[in-house]
From TrEMBL:
PROSITE patterns: MFS, SUGAR_TRANSPORT_1, SUGAR_TRANSPORT_2
Database matches in Gene3D superfamilies: MFS general substrate transporter like domains (1.20.1250.20)
Annotated function: May be a proton symporter involved in the uptake of osmolytes such as proline and glycine betaine.
Membrane topology, record value: Multi-pass membrane protein
Family: Belongs to the major facilitator superfamily. Metabolite:H+ Symporter (MHS) family (TC 2.A.1.6) family.
Name under which the protein is recorded: Putative proline/betaine transporter
UniProt organism field: Amycolatopsis iheyensis
Residues that span the membrane, as ranges: 58-81, 93-111, 117-137, 158-181, 193-212, 246-264, 284-300, 312-332, 338-361, 373-394, 406-424
Domain Major facilitator superfamily (MFS) profile: 21-429
Keyword entries, A-Z: Cell membrane, Membrane, Symport, Transmembrane, Transmembrane helix, Transport
Location in the cell: Cell membrane
SUPFAM superfamilies: MFS general substrate transporter (SSF103473)
Length: 436
């Protein structure tokens, strides 16, 4: 089944207008992902506040479990907010998602520790994370849809790559604030109360973006489609007519999400807890590697506009399958911060073959009337099952004394996606040919 992305004709919308829409669509995504990753970045400081134990690995395991459970709400968010975006517009859904994120961050910021309110502390942490999971599940599908629809034909790979620029940017903001707080506060102050600053900042930023997004332009593709498909927009019945595309989203995502969360988030705990590199040094390593990875995204996205999406996906699939185990094995034994930096960067360069174009590839599979729910629901389900559990599986295997098994697990997941990349059609050519 072939699908075209409906969008403005060449020359109908000025490049300046397109850039403005992309920027407005991206800045909220930046704040959303800052709030999401602040949890991962500051886990090492607040873990024992919610899970009292003298065993660092056990405390990390508790917060990793909550991190994973938060992912379970992402399919619900992908369905609810994806349906909302398809029925009532991309702009309204983006405003709603960032409002939910503000609420989740505020709850984490003000929740007392276990020593103050007992079991209520981890329960409130869990509730906050569930709210954030709902928000992120809807944010991904709606922002991916919005960026693909407002982008100039022939440049969709480039403009859509900014979703992961801002995703990495959110993580950079979280790590950057962590570096600042590490310089201003003592280790004891950060562990006691300083980590709350990160979630307070996230709350204020999300509320600011909520106000900003209210003035966004609606996607012209959605506006035109809304006039003719009112009864079909965003329904599961309409989505069920695209089983092959749904399966493709799952296959596209599986290896990419596991590899992404391994190198972009779990590597922070891995370098600290396995390689025994000092915490602040690890933060600097991650910050530098992710900064370069963010810069790489639009370059890879632009390349996909020239040579197609499949070559980049095949690069990720082949390199990820062959190199994950060697990279992680050496990373776990290195004590050299420079070497650790290049190993993390190598992993992120490999993952860029997926991250830079995964949003546009999925958007190109579905028609406008179900694009947000089509991208969001199967993607969020896959991320919840595989991406959200990656760190939990890694920590559990480490605790059981079989940490290296996790490396093979990641490589195996990438191999499954490689099979999908090798058999799927080239989505960019189909879309551009139909528009001509």
């Amino acid at each position: 089944m072939t699908t075209r992305i409906s969008g403005p004709a060449e020359g109908a919308v000025s490049e300046k207008r397109v850039i403005g829409n992309v920027l407005r669509g991206s800045i909220g995504n930046l704040v959303e992902w800052y709030d999401w990753y602040a949890y991962a970045a500051f886990t090492t400081y607040f873990a024992k506040s919610f899970f009292p134990t003298t065993d660092t690995t056990a405390a990390f395991l508790g917060t990793a479990a909550v991190f994973a459970v938060g992912f379970l709400m992402r399919p619900l968010g992908g369905w609810m907010l994806g349906r909302f975006a398809d029925r009532f517009g991309r702009r309204s859904a983006l405003v709603l998602s960032v409002t939910l994120m503000a609420g989740g961050s505020l709850l984490i910021a003000v929740t007392p520790s276990y020593h103050t309110i007992g079991l209520a502390a981890p329960i409130l942490l869990l509730v906050a994370r569930l709210i954030q999971g709902l928000s992120v599940g809807g944010e991904y599908s709606t922002s991916a849809t919005y960026l693909s629809e407002v982008a100039t034909p022939g440049k969709r790979g480039f403009y859509s790559s900014f979703q992961y620029v801002t995703l990495y940017g959110g993580q950079l903001l979280a790590l950057g604030l962590q570096l600042i707080l590490q310089g201003l506060l003592t280790e004891q102050q950060l562990t006691s109360w300083g980590w709350r600053i990160a979630f307070g900042v996230g709350t204020v930023a999300a509320l600011s973006v909520m106000w900003l997004r209210r003035g966004m332009d609606e996607s012209e593709s959605y506006t035109r489609e809304a006039e003719t498909t009112a009864g079909e927009r965003g329904t599961l019945r309409a989505l069920a007519k695209y089983p092959k595309e749904i399966a493709l989203v799952v296959g596209l995502t599986l290896g990419g999400t596991v590899a992404f969360y391994t190198f972009a988030t779990y590597s922070q705990k891995f370098l600290e807890n396995t390689a025994h590199i000092p915490r602040r040094t690890v933060t600097i390593i991650l910050f530098a590697a992710i900064l370069l990875a963010a810069i790489l995204q639009p370059l890879a996205g632009k390349l996909s506009d020239r040579i197609g999406r499949r070559p980049l996906l095949l690069f990720f699939g082949i390199a990820g399958t062959l190199l994950t185990v060697p990279i992680m094995t050496v990373m776990g034994s290195t004590r050299n911060p420079v070497g650790a930096f290049f190993l993390v960067l190598a992993g992120l360069v490999v993952v860029a073959g997926y991250t830079s174009i995964n949003a546009i590839v999925k958007a190109e599979l579905f028609p406008t009337k179900i694009r947000a729910i089509g991208v969001g629901l199967p993607y969020a389900l896959t991320v919840a099952i595989f991406g959200g559990t990656a760190e939990l599986i890694a920590q559990a295997l480490k605790s059981a004394g079989h940490e290296s098994v996790f490396f093979w697990y990641v490589a195996g997941c990438v191999l499954v996606s490689l099979i999908v990349y090798g058999t799927m059609r080239e989505t960019s050519k189909t879309s551009e040919l139909e528009e001509r």
